[in-house]
Amino acid sequence: MVQATSLPRNEPGIKAAIGVLKQTFGDRLQTGQSIREQHGHTTTWIETQAPDAVVFPTSTEEVAAIVKTCAEYGVPVIPFGTGTSLEGHVNAPAGGISVDMARMDKILAVHAEDLDVVVQPGVTREQLNTFLRDQGLFFPIDPGANASLGGMAATRASGTNAVRYGTMKDNVLALEVVMADGEVIRTAQRAKKSSAGYDMTRLMVGSEGTLGLITEITLRLQGIPEAIRSARCAFRSVDDACRAVMMTIQYGIPVARIEMLDAMSVKAANTYSKLDLPEVPLLLLEFHGSEAGVVEQAEMFSSIAEEFGGFDFEATSTAEERNKLWQARHDMYWACLGLRPGAKGISTDVCVPISRLAECVSTAREKAEEMGLMAPMVGHVGDGNFHALLLIDMDSAEERAKADEYVGWLNDLAISMDGTCTGEHGIGQGKRPYLTKELGAATRYMAAVKAALDPDNILNPGKIISD
Fold first, then answer.
1. In the sheet that 311-316 helps form, which strands lie side by side, from edge to edge?
2. 48 close to 42: Cβ distance less than 8 angstroms
3. pLDDT tens for each residue of 369-405
4. For a disulfide at 288, which of 114, 256, 397, 462, Cβ 3.0-4.6 Å?
5. Distance between CA atoms of 148 and 146, rounded to whole angstroms?
6. What pTM does this model have?
């Protein structure tokens, strides 16, 4: 089991910083045990490490003031979005101040003609898309949880639409960031491309709050498609389903979503979402385009699926049916918990080149069965990314040890296949042991960047880079 190692605490500095910030923020700075634990809470098995205080800024200037105070007293600063990250990103191993961005939730500007929008970090993806709907626009990154856009940028989030629209790194045009000394910078302008200097935007996207606090985001938008068509197709094995995915991508079919559920996951979805899907490996797909185009894309996929034994293919353009299907996919975490009531769900993800996907998923399935682990699997398989949800009795030392062994084994397997230990969950605390295995000497240069931009290590310490 991954241990949440504690780091040295600066007790006098923490006390002094809280006193100064309390004078400025009043009731918007909280030190109660319950709210502190909520902001150190993790949706994984990593031990909760609560901050010493939680502060709720409403502007970039206030965030800068918080960071300047913390820098003066050498106190850690941990940015907080909605708390849906999965690898201990919001833990406070050295104590410090949690900066909750929830009240920085304004949509600042929509440039419909340029297909971009400027938002504060506390805006959630659902809030943004509801706001944009009447303008015929949408933001495509959909990680499932109603995460904040600041958190999504900080963790380089992905989701079900990534196969067509990319991840956060492809959809963030510019950022406003508060650096470790409290200075506010902009990483780029709104132009769709630039050759001006180092790519500071990409450096900050995925930095998990260790290099700066994001206070404003300029995002790329898409036009709502003329037509959307969803489909499902059953297969006899995970291997057959993955091979159908690989062929679909290689044929260049512009599929917007292509998700895999193994038989165990389908069983959970049927019970939780009251569906009647065949309880075998299943692919869920979505096609975007013209009315004729989405029908053609679905028919092309159906032909490919038949080559790999696909059956029970159904397609629909009805919004109600489409939404029901995708809501069931987004509810998979809660659905899978129902397979073993009382168990803790430990979610882990890896990503491999599409040509190795079938082998990786099949091997992962076999290993879980060999170890006696209940591990339903789902994935954004169109880009080689899949998740295993280990259902563990946390009171059993044997099961915890097995789960820890399995997660480590799966990370190593993906890396051995030229893949990554995390396709979208991020490193945080939980994946740190595998980053050096994956990138080797490159992690020394990451550490050098961290030391240059945050010499006192006050920005989300204990994450990504090993101390």
1. 311-316, 227-234, 282-289, 255-261, 377-380, 385-392, 344-351
2. yes
3. 999 999 999 989 899 999 999 999 999 999 999 999 9
4. 256
5. 7
6. 0.95
